[in-house]
Amino acid sequence: MSGRIILHIDLNSFFASVEQLLQPHLAGKPVAVAGNPKQRRGIVITCSYEARAYGVKTTMHVRDALRLCPHLEIVAPNFPAYRDYSQRFFALLRDVSPILQPVSIDEGYLDITDVVGEHPLQFVDQLQQRIYTELQLPCSIGVAPNKFLAKMASDMKKPMGITVLRKRDVPQMLWHLPVTAMHGVGAKTAEKLKTLHVTTIGQLAQTERHELRRHFGVQGEQMHERANGQDRRAVDPLAIYDTKSVGNSTTFAQNLTERVAVYEAVKRLSVKVAKRLQMKSLAGTTVSVMIRTADWQTYTRSQTVQNALQDEEEISRVAWMLVERHWQGEPIRLLGVTVSHVIDAQARTEQLNLFNFEQHAQEEPILTLLDNINAKYDKQLVMKGMKKRMVSDEYYANTSFSKDVFLHFDVSKKS
């Protein structure tokens, strides 16, 4: 292979594989990691390949999974164990190459161009075997000259597959596939492409670039490039910290119909979002609420504010305003609160107005003193507030951690 050599490494059925490793009696059996099967939030998070052979799938309700596979082993998620194995997985990859970009708890990109030697496929095979020997976890690896093709390749052979996908192979290996098989193209985009008579990756590749841009903007140009095997993105070790939004959602055991119950749910979600923002030293200017009704209709409403928010009371106030404005009293199955367009909390500036001007005026002498001290020594010795990244186990126990898990170690550290 010439040019860059990029790997996409994906741990196969990660949660289920960890459970089979920790509980040997589950080895070789159909296993599903899910919540409480007696509650509506009993959704299959992931399942073993033995379970998939019966038709069990991720996001399937537990009761439906049990109909397909009556002897399915249901296991509650063990997030501390998954976090531990994830960190060991990425530490191993970082030992192979410092150019590592995690993209979720169980997958990442690795640039091995400068470390691979003369036999890249032998190198990749040895890496796969090392992961299995040291962690006892199966993985699939895509090998390609760019990130998009590496991701597409890793999905082609599971479990324990290794697939090479070069640019010249794209017409033969990808163009016959439906556009929904293309990484980055969702159901809504596929429906819109269908109106342009584009249903396969090959048709997308052969559609005029300007036509796609007219309908999809910059995303249209990116889809055209990907369909032709082009991707200029580098493997970025720091990309995992580029958070664009922080949110939390919950599915209720019983539909919410009472105003007070909905308000309390908004408050609880806002507290969780605020805690995550504060842990990451972030603040955002857009608050969104997502409501899914009992008949599975989902809608999202957003409000952008002048000053970036981080406090639970402010987030809750805007979120509740959106709910009151748009909720028509339908029974609510799921509710979510998200803060987006986030920035570093220390970098935010607050627009002065009639109500906060006095507070800023009182702080001005302190800020002037800090500036004078820093100017005297030509260093940022003191500042207002302190940026902290102390993450507790309680934080992980109450939030999604597919990206937050990486705050515990430096993915960009060289071996």
TrEMBL record:
Entry GO CC: cytosol
Question: Sorted alphabetically, which keywords does the UniProt record give?
Answer: Cytoplasm, DNA damage, DNA repair, DNA replication, DNA-binding, DNA-directed DNA polymerase, Magnesium, Metal-binding, Mutator protein, Nucleotidyltransferase, Transferase
**Cofactor(s) this protein requires:** Mg(2+)
Q: Which GO terms describe its biological process?
A: DNA repair; DNA-templated DNA replication; error-prone translesion synthesis; SOS response
- Active site location: E107
The reaction(s) this protein catalyses: DNA(n) + a 2'-deoxyribonucleoside 5'-triphosphate = DNA(n+1) + diphosphate
Q: Name one GO molecular function term.
A: DNA-directed DNA polymerase activity
Q: Which family does it belong to?
A: Belongs to the DNA polymerase type-Y family.
Q: How does it assemble?
A: Monomer.
What function does this protein fulfil? Poorly processive, error-prone DNA polymerase involved in untargeted mutagenesis. Copies undamaged DNA at stalled replication forks, which arise in vivo from mismatched or misaligned primer ends. These misaligned primers can be extended by PolIV. Exhibits no 3'-5' exonuclease (proofreading) activity. May be involved in translesional synthesis, in conjunction with the beta clamp from PolIII.
What name does this protein carry?
Answer: DNA polymerase IV
Species, as recorded: Caryophanon tenue
| The organism's taxonomic lineage, starting at the top | Bacteria, Bacillati, Bacillota, Bacilli, Bacillales
Gene (UniProt): dinB
